[in-house]
# Entry
Amino acid sequence: MKFTTSTAVALLLASPALAAPKADVLTNYADIALAGYEDSLTTAQALEAAVDALIADPSEATLAAARDAWRGSRPSYQQTEVFRFGNPIVDEWEGKVNAWPLDEGLMDYVSEDYEGPTDENEYAALNIIANPSVTIAGQQIDASEITAELIADTLNEADGVESNVARGYHAIEFLLWGQDLNGTGPGAGERPFTDYAQGDDCTGGNCDRRADYLKAATALLVADLHEMVDAWGSDGAARAALMEDEDAGITAMLTGMGSLSYGEQAGERMRLGLMLNDPEEEHDCFSDNTHISHFYDGQGIQNVYLGSYTRIDGSTVEGPSLSELVAEIDPELDTEMKAKLDTTMAALGDIVEAAEGGFAYDQMLALGNEKGEALIMGGVDGLIDQTRTIERIVAELNVSDVAIEGSDSLDNPNAIFQ
# Structure
């Protein structure tokens, strides 16, 4: 038989598809990370512009626009959380931008029934906005000017207490919404725009310092996201570390998927709040935006497995994927994983639909609310179930050192109430 180009094409088409090289899968994973952090930076810059407009001209309209910009910044960022756990550079950085829950009294005024200083945190009601001079860990602190440096170097995790969250998305969220005092009833925080007004129109006191804090915290967020964009760029440290060892890189991918799916989202962010019937355990507790953050955390896990991410401009970053690696070894396992991801996203979508329809996530957490419990547990069960398949994938790919983080709410529920 004469070997021609057409013969070669026919033979190629008749041959079984080869799995994507691990290096290509890792490159696409890094490209998705870069795109996600670039979108997070873009939306944070839009938030910064909206904050500047609020400070320059406080009004119902400018406050609403700043809140909309904050909500608009969450989907892109939440889809990047899957890069945590397996990538040390991301883990070491993440606490700067998305730490929660927080003792909001560290920053600003709170309601009279706020618990205040505790044995665990004597600075829980420090109110730096109202106090230009404070003592932290026995050291007198000059807070006459609220700057990014003061927030980052002195206030954040003051005296080593993790709940002293002074920066990042949730600090900004509190400064835009204030406390949500509705318990498990509907409604978010109701901070008035006049908390940023000047002169006699100022409410809450110290409006100029509150504006300084909000501006500095937003600038910090933008700077922090710049750092992570650089880390995943072509010469970035996170990309370089990932590509050093192909097997270790695949381990990082699966560790991030499994840990976010199981211990972090199913456990700490969803099951724990339901067990305690506590809206303070909501991820976005001031704004009642938790349902959106949960959905996009789930989306991030699916993105990594399928090797595809849809950017805020509608374009797609996609390429060789974990799915292809798994399908080469066990097509049925790949089909199972994709089906379970779809099931989880449908369950998280049900939560979003209910919340957007007026059944707030706060209400879902209420003791005895069977509809709310069913919605939340639908998401929890989907996340747990897909984690079991991730564990099977780890075994099939013969990947070592994948340590999926747990949660007492899932692994030792009795410990929650001790």
